[in-house]
Amino acid sequence: MPPRWPREPDRKDPDYRKIDDRMNFAIHVAIAASINSGLWFFHILKATAWEWLPGVTLSWTGILLVHLIYIAAIANYSDPSKSI
After folding, report:
1. DSSP character for 80?
2. Minimum mean pLDDT among 7-11, 19-23, 30-34: which range?
3. Which of 57, 58, 68, 55 is nearest to 28 (CA)?
4. How many CB atoms lie within 10 A of CB 59?
5. Single pTM value for the model
6. What's the gap between Cα 15 and its chain centre?
7. Using one digit for the tens of pLDDT, what is the confidence trace for 74-84?
């Protein structure tokens, strides 16, 4: 059963922005994992080496790490309408 949002979804709502960013990150991780695992699977099956594959995997992992740091530590999810 998919998660349900108790009120009208609005990007101005801090709770909605937070869950939306986390679900976005989860989708990015799933896409990266599926593409990288497929590339490594075919790399193992092939007789020739793909020298560029570790670089692609490390780069993609670095991008995901930066994305995680942003949503976990940098993103401001406070409500701007409630500021003093």
Report:
1. G
2. 7-11
3. 68
4. 10
5. 0.80
6. 18
7. 888 887 676 55
